[in-house]
From TrEMBL:
It comes from Octodon degus. Belongs to the DEAD box helicase family. DDX51/DBP6 subfamily. Its EC number is 3.6.4.13. ATP-binding RNA helicase involved in the biogenesis of 60S ribosomal subunits. RNA helicase. The lineage of its organism: Eukaryota, Metazoa, Chordata, Craniata, Vertebrata. Residues 67-86 have a biased composition (Low complexity). SUPFAM superfamilies: P-loop containing nucleoside triphosphate hydrolases. This is ATP-dependent RNA helicase. It catalyses: ATP + H2O = ADP + phosphate + H(+). Residues 421-569 form the Helicase C-terminal domain. Residues 1-10 have a biased composition (Basic residues).
Length: 593
């Protein structure tokens, strides 16, 4: 409708920019005709425009009628009732340019009234026995993996999801399509298990193997991490998990998805964990790969996945899951249509549900963005109250929540002192695992070479410069504690769960709050404590701190690194710099050759 309104305005010769920040009906906010512009002859107004104008104040009509330039309009009559011929006629609306009133943004009810999830993963735990709906085998598995109580997000989401599959996964409760769920909870708060447990339980008693759950994640490393968790909880079940990320050749992945039989294809995976690009490859190229029985579509790191919607992976998944021509067998007991408004016809036959589940620590509250996912009667679980005004300092709830055990500070720093500050922090704190983020692969590489040349710290770098095999090896060594400092681009900023990361350093200040939330969220996970330091140049300080303050993030304390502490490191550092110069030249020479 907005597009149509804009077009009409232009056709009518109106001010095309008038509705640029439109959020509601344009008529309320559109300025009156400019001096010098032709008056609006009634005959050229569309009914839509007339209604909008008629809906404006009587005062405006009277004001216009009183104007000496304008022929009098019949006061109190709707303009369409006027019988003037087309051509110069009564002009509706005032001459004076009025400021368009600011339209307050408003949230749809489901976003404005989330089911509140408690934040504190150390205090608000729910013992496993308190949620008896979870299958005893899964409860045993949880305990075997050291989990004796659910974190708050799990205690809220698991029962809700199990409820929607209480009549079996093939039909929603009472034959109705279940609500889609959106979950927003801090980093390290256990969102993965919040979907793994109910999905596994819902599929436990499936008879025929079909792809029933599809989990889509932005990176190969994350997909691998999530598939590992699924493997743990499906280990003692007939359910099979396939990982499709492009780490293996397409043919190898196809072998894990389908098997050719005498009468067609047999599905080999109940749960598919995938990155979007490779998933689309399989939809296009893997014969027998079908999503028509899909029951759960889990979108982890949902805000990032919404940003990657230009890859149009979601329409491809939906087209594969819901045939556009309607149910293939109209007389089949269970059918699937695209979720739409409920009508008598749509409820006459039980629906085979497809439920979308969105998870993120920084889930967008922008309804327009969420709308792109085509959610059906969504429900939001959130640790944050709906954000009213980002600039409202009195708003006790920030835009995003941070883990309770996280202590974050910033270090004022000059450009040349940044590498030394990193070395000082890592050496001085005697840490076993620290993660340092840069904004580019070049910065990560140079910092890595410099720290390596300095010595005294086992260091590695992680970026998309390396292949998936090498990256996997580096992450494993980091997990095992063989690497003390991992210098990384934002490739590890999201979702990566390495227990025991005690320190995060933002060597380069992140440009966006979301990036900051995810980076610092690599520490202080699962109720542990952790520290995060952001190195800030003088010119960055104000902007960065304002960005955090505007989002309601807790105020960062300043952490000075006195130069007298750095002084003893300088001679070694200068040697390392010369070594770096030699290495960079050598690398360049090799590249050119
Ligand atoms: N109930 C629990 N008790 C103890 N540990 C748990 C529990 N649930 C999850 N964990 C652990 O907490 C860690 C973080 O969990 P997870 O990776 O699911 O967090 P997340 O909310 O997805 O974080 P992110 O937003 O960064 O992806 C994992 O190591 C996981 O094993």
């Amino acid at each position: 409708p907005d597009a149509r309104q804009g077009k009409r305005r232009r056709v009518d010769g109106g001010d095309a920019d008038a509705g640029a920040d439109a959020g509601g009906p344009g008529a309320e906010r559109e300025p009156g005709p400019r001096r010098g512009l032709p008056a609006w002859p009634v005959g050229t107004l569309t009914p839509w425009r007339l209604l909008c104008r008629a809906g404006r104040s009587q005062e405006a009509i009277e004001e216009r009628s009183a104007s000496p330039e304008a022929p009098a309009a019949p006061v109190g009559r709707l303009p369409e009732a006027a019988s003037e011929p087309a051509g110069p006629g009564p002009v509706l609306g005032g001459l004076a340019r009025r400021r368009a009133p600011k339209v307050q943004p408003f949230l749809p009810v489901w976003l404005a009234n989330p089911s509140c999830v408690k934040k504190n993963v150390t205090e608000d735990l729910v013992p496993i026995e308190d949620i008896p709906e979870v299958h005893p085998d899964l409860q045993r598995q949880l305990k075997a993996h050291g989990i004796s109580a659910y974190f708050p997000v799990q205690a809220a989401v698991i029962p809700a999801l199990l409820e929607s599959a209480a009549d079996g996964f093939l039909v929603g409760r009472g034959g109705y399509q279940p609500s889609d769920l959106c979950v927003s909870a801090p980093t390290g708060s256990g969102k993965t298990l919040a979907f793994v447990i109910p999905v596994v339980q819902a599929l436990l008693h499936r008879v025929v193997c079909h792809v029933r759950a599809l989990i889509v994640l932005p990176t190969k490393e994350l997909a691998q991490q999530v598939s590992k968790v699924f493997n743990i909880y499906t280990d003692a079940t007939p359910l099979r998990v396939a990982l499709v990320t492009g780490q293996k050749p397409l043919a190898k992945e196809q072998e894990s998805l389908v098997q050719k039989t005498a009468d067609g294809y047999r599905c080999l995976a109940d749960i598919v964990v995938a990155t979007p690009g490779r998933l689309v490859d399989h939809i296009d190229q893997t014969q027998g790969f079908s999503l028509q029985q899909l029951r759960f579509l889990v979108v982890d790191e949902a805000d990032r996945m919404i940003d990657s919607m230009h890859q149009s992976w979601l329409p491809r998944v939906m087209a594969a899951a819901v045939p556009s021509s309607g149910p293939a067998a109209p007389c089949a007991l269970l059918q699937r249509w695209r979720p739409a408004a409920m009508t008598a016809a749509s409820t006459s036959c039980p629906q085979m549900p497809l439920q979308k589940l969105l998870f993120s620590a920084t889930l967008t509250q922008n309804p327009e963005k969420l709308q792109r996912l085509g959610l059906y009667q969504p429900r939001l679980f959130s640790t944050q109250l709906p954000h009213r005004d980002p600039g409202d300092a009195k708003d006790p709830e920030g835009k995003y929540a941070f883990p309770a055990g996280l202590m974050h500070r910033y270090v004022p720093c000059s450009l040349s002192a940044k590498p030394l500050a990193v070395i000082h922090l890592v050496l001085g704190m005697h840490l076993s695992r620290a993660l340092c983020f840069t904004n580019s692969r070049e910065n990560a590489h140079r910092l890595f070479l410099l720290v390596q040349a300095f010595g005294g710290v086992s260091v590695a770098e992680f970026s998309s410069c390396y292949g998936p095999g090498h990256r996997r090896k580096i992450l494993k060594q980091f997990e095992q504690g063989k690497i003390q400092l991992l210098i990384s681009t934002d490739a590890t900023a999201r979702g990566i769960d390495v227990p025991g990361v005690e320190l995060v350093i933002n060597y380069d200040a992140p440009q966006y709050l979301r990036t900051y939330v995810h980076r610092v969220g690599r520490t202080a996970r699962a109720g542990k404590t952790g520290q995060a330091f952001t190195l800030l140049l003088k010119v960055q300080e104000r902007r960065f701190l304002r960005m955090l303050a505007e989002a309601g993030a807790p105020e960062l304390a300043r952490h000075e690194v006195p130069s007298k502490l750095l002084q003893p490191l300088v001679p070694r550092y200068e040697e390392a710099l010369s070594q770096l110069e030699r290495t960079v030249k050598e690398e360049y020479r090799q590249k050119v050759a």
